[in-house]
Amino acid sequence: DQQVKQNSPSLSVQEGRISILNCDYTNSMFDYFLWYKKYPAEGPTFLISISSIKDKNEDGRFTVFLNKSAKHLSLHIVPSQPGDSAVYFCAASDNNDMRFGAGTRLTVKP
Amino acid sequence: NAGVMQNPRHLVRRRGQEARLRCSPMKGHSHVYWYRQLPEEGLKFMVYLQKENIIDESGMPKERFSAEFPKEGPSILRIQQVVRGDSAAYFCASSPPIQGDEQFFGPGTRLTVL
Fold first, then answer.
1. pLDDT (tens digit, 9 = 90+) per residue, B38-70?
2. What is the structure's pLDDT at A102?
3. 3-class SS string, chain A
4. A90, B10, B52, B90: which has the highest count of C-beta atoms within 10 A?
5. Nearest chain B residue to A105, by CA
6. Is residue B45 less than 8 Å (CB to CB) from chain A?
7. Are A73 and A90 in contact (CB under 8 A)?
8. What band does A18 get if pLDDT is binned at 50, 70 and 90?
9. Nearest-Cα residue of chain A relative to residue B34
10. What one-character DSSP code corresponds to residue B108?
11. What letters, b where the CB count within 10 A reaches 16 and e where it falls short, cover A18-54?
């Protein structure tokens, strides 16, 4: 059962534009959400997170939005840079469980 | 279509015992990755396996840790003589034979070493 879904396997944007990566979840018990970034041949590294008591968390060029009623979160990167090209995984957790999406490959073109 | 399965979900071991973590990839997937998540840290890559082959074990500790993915059956991550520092969540992920970027993660095994 895929409790966390990233429906877009890939996304391509122009340098300087906004990248929006989406993630949907089904389990309403999830109360903490994370985005990981993965370069080839490396493990995913933590990027940004948000607690369910918030609907927005911002860190530099990265902003995560959480819509609890829609069970949807998104990661916005603005402005996008070529170095942002990577695979992005979203994850959701409660006290006992962490579940991952399958990833979205972002390509930022110069 | 069942997702990636890991068992047990929770495993408690005393120092010096062995821990065996199992990962059954999604149907049709022939690539398996193991990651370790330590408290307050991100996921650390450990090992990448295809059926009967270890492709990349650059993230595996040199001692006590081993992994296999036999022709039949699940992938096994084995930790011998566990120590308290091995306590972590261990995630496996699988991907299909034609390598893309998608990795489908299992729910993880939480290992606690007493």
1. 766 678 889 999 988 998 898 899 899 999 999
2. 86
3. CCCEECCCCEEEEECCCCEEEEEEECCCCCCEEEEEEECCCCCCEEEEEEECCCCEEEECCEEEEEECCCCEEEEEECCCCHHHCEEEEEEEECCCCEEECCCEEEEEEC
4. A90
5. B101
6. yes
7. yes
8. very high
9. A43
10. -
11. ebbbbbbbeeeebeebbbbbbeeeebbeebbbbeeee
DSSP per position, B49-82: EETTEEEE-TTS-SSSEEEE--SSS-EEEEE-S-
For residue A95, give every residue at least 6 positions away whose Cβ sits within 8 Å of its Cβ, in sequence order, or none: none
Residue B29 is classified by DSSP as -
DSSP B100: -
What residue type is A7 in one-letter code?
N
A59-62, Cβ contacts within 8 angstroms, sequence gap of 24 or more: A62/A35
With CB atoms and an 8 Å threshold, state whether B44 touches A103. no
Mean pLDDT of A8-22: 96
Mind telling me how many Å the CA of A82 is from chain B's nearest CA?
Answer: 18
Instruction: Kindly report the number of other CB atoms within 10 A of residue B49's CB atom.
Output: 26
Taking contacts as CB-CB distances below 8 angstroms, the residues of chain A near B105 are: 89, 99-100, 102
DSSP β-ladder status, A56-59 and A45-51:
unpaired
* B40: nearest CA partner in chain A: A46
Q: What is the pLDDT of residue B41?
A: 66
CB nearest B43 (choices: A10, A36, A103): A36
